[in-house]
Amino acid sequence: MMPVDAAACSARKAAVDTFKRDRILDAAREVFAGQGLEGTTVRQIAGAAGYAPGTLYLHFESKEEIYGALLEASLVLLGRAVSDAQGDGIRAQFMAFHHYYARNAEELDLGLYLFQGTGRSGLTPQLDQALNDRLRTIVENLAANLARETGRAYQPAHRQTVAAVCHIVGCLIMGGTGRLGMLGYSAEDLVADRLSEMIR
After folding, report:
1. ∠ CA 144-145-146 to the nearest 5 degrees?
2. Does CATH number 1.10.540.10 belong to domain 1-60?
3. Quick one: what percent of the chain has pLDDT higher than 90?
4. C-alpha–C-alpha distance, residues 44 and 124, integer Å
5. Do 95 and 195 meet the contact criterion of CB atoms below 8 Å apart?
6. Does the pTM exceed 0.70?
7. Which pLDDT belongs to residue 116?
């Protein structure tokens, strides 16, 4: 009888756990896209993933934690896209922010979980704080790079960065609804115009 390799067993278990977790997240992304956070149940996610609800609880404590994991993964990829553009200058970094969500519109929809009408709802304060911290880091890095490239003080650069991010998100929402096209504009062009005004 061959001896059991504890390291190999541990590696196999980790691989299976990762596979199951990823499958749950993929299924949850689709369910959330159709039902929203409030309308989704753990049972629906489990069914879409092909697992019993109990399996989900081995990996996540709640549907909110699943939602938070999806948003965190999205923000990690957004941060990477912006960081990868750093060598091409601050304009390219802002455009990378725009392009990331233009190519991944469903992730922008997920990211707007906080707002239903004028109220806020959704995740636990701890999850909300962790996600806000990740987004804040991306914005602060953009602001620091804008200040460095233009010679502006950090605080005005930070204000301009926040305004630019708001402009980008607004253009993406309007573009996604078809309203910009109806008005004769594209989100890409309006974002580029705003950056030209901001970065001189």
Report:
1. 90
2. no
3. 62
4. 21
5. yes
6. yes
7. 46
